[in-house]
Amino acid sequence: MSLHPDKLLLIHGLVDGELDAANTVAIETHLKSCADCRAELEQIQAVRELIAAAPLRERAPEGLHKRIELMIDGEAGPAPRASAAPHRPVMPGRLAWNGGGVAAHVLSGRWASGLATGLIAASLALAVVMPQLTHTDMEDQLVQSHVRSLLVGHLVDIPTSNRHVVKPWFNGKVDFAPPVPELADEGFPLVGGRLDYIDDHEVAAIVYRRRLHVINLFVRPAHTLSLPGGAVARHEGYSLVRWTAGGLEYWAVSDVDTRDLRLFRQLYISRAMP
User: Which of 54, 62, 144, 208 is most buried when burial is the number of CB atoms within 10 A of its CB?
Assistant: First the structure.
């Protein structure tokens, strides 16, 4: 018996925690019967432990913190004489400032400009992050359907990478026509399609992959939704991305990183346009 090269990617994915449930079960089953692949796994884990234990962090020299403080104070300039500064009462709720030292440097025009820029950037970041979903029963159902499709071996009813086969397969099974764009050239190959049941209604499930990960795209008429436009969420270790277009509501669910799922949404929308 020898090491199976075709299992190496799965072994590394297992060590890094990047496998979905189906691939995790598959490689763990293989490792039980293959001593060489099991030895490779143990060697990878040993190397990771050595790297984690290695003294790779450099300790800052003694006195560095104090020298940085002195440099900042020196750049701000000397503080004015106390007698030269007029007395200004401190208003309730405001900070006292004598015009010198680190406080003066921080509140100088140059730093104030930087502070304003930082606040604007933070506001923009909040604007991007704000459309997050709160925990809902819908998320529970979507994640459960995604996991169930991996565990019971019923990922697709029509297994094919040909979108011209998947799209007409839904005709007569659901009363809408979900777009099935080809995204393999962007790293999201089509796996097939199936019918699923969400929120007491039949929905179309279009299945794509991202490397070793499965993406379930659930599609249903938009008139059944109760949530606002596009949104992103993490729920029980899975990423969920939702959007609406052309009278349909889309939910993409996977254990890939949220950034990959956002990229999938962007590509799907651009390719699904007539």
Answer: 208
